[in-house]
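sorry for the late reply, my laptop died twice this morning and i had to redo everyting from scratch. anyway the thing you sent over, i finally got around to it. pasting the sequence first so we're on the same page, its 409 residues, then the predicted structure underneath. double check i copied it right bc i was rushing
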Amino acid sequence: MRVRVRENLLATLGAALGISLVGWLGLTDWAWNDYDREARPAFDALLAGHLLGFLKLAPAYGGSLVLRAPFVLITKLWGGGQLAIYRASAAPCLIASAILGVWLVARLRARGVPLMTRALALGLCAANPVTLLALETGHPEELLGAVLCVAAVAVALDGRPLGAGALLGLAVANQEWALLAAGPVLLALPRGRVRAAAVALALAGAILLPLAAAGPFVAQVKGAAAPDNLVFSPWQLWWFLGPPLHRVIAGEPWATRLDPGWLAAVAHPLIVAVALPLSLLCAWRRRRGLRAAAREPLLLLCLLLLLRCALDPWDNWYYPLPFLLALLVWEVRDGSGPPILALCASGAWWILTQWLVPSHGFSADEQSLLFLAAAVPALIALLLALYAPGAGRRLRARPLRRAVRAAAA
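ok and here's the structure:
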């Protein structure tokens, strides 16, 4: 045990520094973001001792609030104010990303992977710039769901059905979109799939059942799955199907698009519906001996999480975070090289959303075209890598890696 602690001490300190930096930058104010409207009323009721009120006021992702409630209750020990409560609610999500980073570094060290690769992997886990977008918007649960989904598939690849099932159950309880990870987890397990599914179902049910029994949680989940009014973002595949809307705001012309109406009842269920045939196709190909790659379930998870971004009309700027973490673990799991794709994708998304679009005043249609230019080739590459022979070698971008290594030398 002492040897393990000593070996992982530097990585642990680095991860702690990374999440501290991200938390300091991203958890500065709660009064304007979604936390204030959605999570704060429930946490206020919990701290006032009203457990039933906490369950009734919990939003559609109320299971995440249940998982994070112990950290929020700790703030009562020193009488922490609203900012302390806000930060405490995000702490377990950041800690989870740090644990994933340290675990990943330990595996890479055991394979003899160079220090630079291990450092990049740790940094992208614990201090990914896209994490800032989730924290600033008031949705740290997105980071927690990403870590749990990726960890569930990774543990399943190690042949541990109970651990994989527990992580999957926690992920689904945290946010319902984690159902996308069910197929990759079951595909990754060499045996014990029924046990894993049973554990996941039992754990998710134990967390969500009190919410369903106490109040409008089920109705809120249904409303999120098929809302009456969609948040129609340019960063998705449906954008140009919406009718244009032109207005003048503060004397300046402003153009956007409205959702086409029928999309509200289709988009979110379609994301889960598409995941089923894609997962079954991977399982069928593996059974026929057409594919047997050890990292195929992680690649499938990457595809499903990117499809979630592309098909969701709500597609917020932090939605790619789960995809980026899955891409990172897929890239480095076999220790073949640094996580160039995950590094470039994370940096490009941050630059695009936080600098390029705001500073250049791109219209909504232009923003959508930028998204399509990045997402469509990535989806095609993932589909080819999964279902077409030899495409995985192209996706791994070996020429790009060779160029980066040559430049570093």
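The chain has a mean pLDDT of 87.
thats about all i looked at so far, will dig more tmrw
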